[in-house]
Design a protein that fits this description.
The structure is a homodimer. By secondary structure, chain A is α/β, with parallel strands linked by helices. Chain A has eleven helices and 14 strands. In chain A, the strands form three sheets. In chain A, strands 3-2-1-4-5-6-14 form a seven-stranded parallel beta sheet, with helices on both faces. In chain A, strands 8-9-10-11 form a four-stranded mixed beta sheet. In chain A, helix 2 runs parallel beside helix 3.
């Protein structure tokens, strides 16, 4: 399976590493908007090209993995590139998925390629678990908790405050809320009851820390609805202690069965990830395998993780899977 | 979707209840090897027939759900009944799945029906999670723990000991082993380190309890390789405190990514079930929906949970799923 990487940030590097872990895949090229000469990648003897060259390589690449951002890159890139390639993206603006799906579907059906969108863990593995849980336990409630992990968006929001040099924000699920859900009591939980936001902030010399803390805690959408903890620390401590990008979370289905719905059941799926982009990349690479196989069977159009038969993700044969995993 | 239930024990009753929770399904008939006149089922106005009548009803039932046992019933029933119906079974003798699959596949391809086998939670949802986990985290280890829950086979084994009136055996995962796995340390665990077996035993009056306890603890395959705890209790206590059939367990994938595999990730899936047969039934009913839809699209042959696109399980449309769950 010949793979291309389109965009080389944290996610692109994660995909590069994940390809190395899958012997049935080969990295053919990395495409960048930067000057290709300036980009040093982690795999020896793999060329780096400018994105403009991608279209010429339609015959050399089986699946192009799109590693751009959901805000502006993917809404344009995915429909455009699936004219030439099977593609996988990690489009994660939940509210805009139906629109993105439609745009990709139209193009991919014309080109007879597979456009696998919104692959990762949320959307992605978490979506799958919401689906399995709700299809099995029809009478029940879904709960998704995120963390403990770094929210890039919230960290950025803090950095935009005057007097802030740098910042890192952790989203932390509230343990009591998790326990209440696991008990089967099907609690109704407010935003504040589900997650805490903990911020590590480096203030500029002479900045008004009280004012910064207040601005963070009252920031609408980002922090106002949460219990927020703010720590001011030195820049070297931030770099030393908070440079990782861990994440994770929980999808819990609490449901009832029986003649009088007298029996409770809890299905819980959780992730604890040292590196958010590397895990996302690992999911993407497995779905690249599926996209390739589905296309080889004549399938085309947009798809999501909800559409893919699980066996298509594995390098093993169906016989091996039934024998070893079932 | 018109459903038949073939076999009416704990699982059959669970399926009956699950059908009631799914408005797109209708129970058409229950088939039994007993005298149908003697069987009172939980759904009013649904006929009970002798199993011999099933074949005549090929045109009246979209999916026949087979609720017999894996030892002798299903190896015969599933290949036979998929001549006439789409079928779903919960065949759970892991070592014989390849053979069962082959037998069902042959018949179902001839009859152009879908034969969905080994549906439930293990095999079933646990298999799915072993597959997803290993396809995503290629460098890693799989761990499956069962319990806390009642093992019917182990309870039966105790009951066969001379001087035992009744017994219930709980399989309990060892908390320290779970924690070691969750830490990402990828421990090698022996049988003894993973599970404890706790037995509640009612001895006959005058029976030699020490001898019974020793026979249990040294029983090969069932108990000899485990730390086993034996409690002797009175029959009324057994009936009062141990009449439920709870179960559950954990599938954990521990894996590594990164240039030097320096980042650890833990994927954990767990079930906590008040009623093992009712949960199994709920999984089966969701896969009955999938079997029906796949057959309507022209698919036939044997399948397992590994082959079914997740969206086929849900009563919701693909558009709804993408909008609400993805």
């Amino acid at each position: 399976m010949r793979i291309g990487i389109y965009g080389y940030g944290n996610l692109g590097r994660g995909v590069e590493n994940a390809i190395r872990q899958n012997p049935d895949m080969k990295l053919v090229a990395v495409f960048t908007r930067r000057n290709p000469e300036d980009l040093v990648i982690g795999t020896p003897n793999v060329p780096v090209y400018h994105v403009d060259k991608a279209k010429e390589m339609s015959g050399d690449i089986d699946v192009m993995i799109l590693c751009g951002g959901s805000a502006t890159d993917l809404p344009e890139q995915t429909p455009e590139l699936c004219k030439y390639f099977n593609v996988v993206d990690s489009f994660d603006t939940h509210a805009k998925i139906p629109e993105h799906f439609k745009n990709v579907d139209e193009m991919a059906k014309k080109s007879k390629k597979v456009g696998m969108i919104s692959v990762g863990w949320d959307p992605g593995m978490f979506s799958l678990n919401r689906l399995y849980g709700s299809a099995i336990l029809v009478d029940g409630e879904d709960y998704t908790f995120w963390g403990k992990g770094v929210s890039q968006g919230h960290s950025d929001a803090i950095r935009r405050i005057e007097g802030v040099v740098d910042a890192k924000q952790y989203t932390i699920p509230v343990e009591d809320a998790l326990e209440a859900v696991r008990s089967g009591s099907a609690p109704k939980l407010t935003t504040r009851q589900k997650h805490i936001r903990e911020c590590f902030v480096v203030a500029a010399e002479g900045a008004d820390k009280e004012k910064i803390e207040n601005e963070i805690k009252t920031m609408p959408n980002y922090f106002a609805d949460y219990d927020t903890i703010v720590h001011f620390i030195a820049l070297d401590e931030l770099k030393r202690e908070h440079s990782g990008i861990p994440h994770g979370g929980f999808v819990i289905r609490s449901g009832r069965t029986g003649k009088n719905l007298e029996n409770n059941h809890i299905i819980e799926y959780s992730l604890k990830l040292d590196s958010n982009p590397e895990f996302t990349a690992s999911v993407i690479v497995a779905y690249a395998r599926a996209a390739y196989r589905l296309n080889n069977e004549g399938k085309s159009g947009a798809m999501t993780v909800l559409d893919v038969p699980p066996a298509y993700l594995s390098a093993k044969s169906n016989e091996e899977l039934r024998k070893e995993l079932l």
